[in-house]
Design a protein that fits this description.
7-stranded mixed sheet, Rossmann fold, alpha/beta, two-stranded antiparallel ribbon, about 45% helix
Length: about 280
């Protein structure tokens, strides 16, 4: 079911026929994570840059006061944003899905063939179960802290947040400002991403996919990035940042890597940019 208000932030390129790109956020956050640096940067590179907030996040409607949403509802929000952008520009956007947003993108592509998608430090198509074990093995302290913060992000300290998400020095005031905008995540969503509503890999493969991981990621281990890339038959690219690539001290490196991935997608894009597959 559609929601009354879907927040869609944007920066338009100077060229009217520029390629639109839709950035899709991960847990706790909203479109604001892309507005800090990425939207202006990508508009300057010649893209129509968009970012949405899922229901219950950012300035989007929150139909459930408890914030208990399912993966299919976030997929609906993504579908609505894509249709809005396509109507505005006469062409479907390329998708960039970060972390949880990468899972939403994959689940969307299970039903709709897209123009192309970048899975950016994304949850793998196999879901949270293998990710949880890999994270517990590689970064046990951060894994336990992040597991607790799914329900209680306000209990995370600025120091813990910095260590888990970023690779370089960031002003404390910025971290505190970002943390104030975080929201608890949904338990039904966690179950969906664990095993109840995983992507249809065959259908996702009908869309050109690029996979990027972060070298200092304490949330999505490199093994999971490699698993995602292997599943979709591509070679992963690597960014010299932490998990929060778009807010990291070295966010420009992430922006350049995402831009290169988008250009690769444009070279591979199918003749039909938007088609239902199921």
């Amino acid at each position: 079911m559609q929601i009354p208000r879907l927040e869609l932030l944007y920066r338009l390129a100077a060229q009217r026929d520029a390629v639109p790109v839709l950035f899709v956020h991960g847990i706790f956050s909203g479109a604001w994570i892309w507005e800090e640096y990425f939207l202006d940067w990508f508009a300057a590179q010649g893209y129509h840059a968009y970012a949405l907030s899922f229901r219950g996040h950012g300035q989007s409607s929150a139909p459930d006061p408890q914030g208990q949403y399912q993966l299919a509802e976030y997929v609906q929000d993504l579908d609505d944003a894509i249709q809005t952008i396509q109507q505005a520009h006469g062409q479907a956007p390329l998708l960039v899905g970060h972390s949880m947003g990468g899972m939403v993108v994959q689940r969307y592509l299970s039903n709709c063939q897209g123009r192309g998608a970048v899975l950016l430090t994304s949850i793998p198509p196999q879901g949270l179960v293998p990710l949880s074990w890999a994270s517990l093995f590689t970064h046990p302290l951060e894994s336990m802290m992040l597991s607790r913060s799914f329900l209680f992000p306000e209990q995370m300290s600025a120091e813990d947040f910095h260590r888990a998400m970023f690779s370089g020095p960031i002003e404390l005031a910025k971290i505190q400002r970002w943390m104030q905008r975080m929201v608890p995540e949904s338990m039904p969503l966690i179950w969906d991403m664990s095993w109840l509503d995983l992507p249809n890999v065959f259908n996702v493969q009908q869309t050109p996919i690029e996979v990027l991981g972060a070298l200092h990621d304490r949330v999505i281990p490199s093994s999971m990035v490699t698993l995602t890339a292997a599943t979709y038959g591509c070679t992963p690219g690597w960014i010299d940042t932490g998990h929060g690539v778009m807010l990291d001290a070295f966010w420009q490196k992430a922006a350049v890597a995402v831009d290169a991935a988008l250009q690769n997608l444009l070279q591979r894009q199918p003749a039909v940019h938007f088609k239902r597959t199921g």
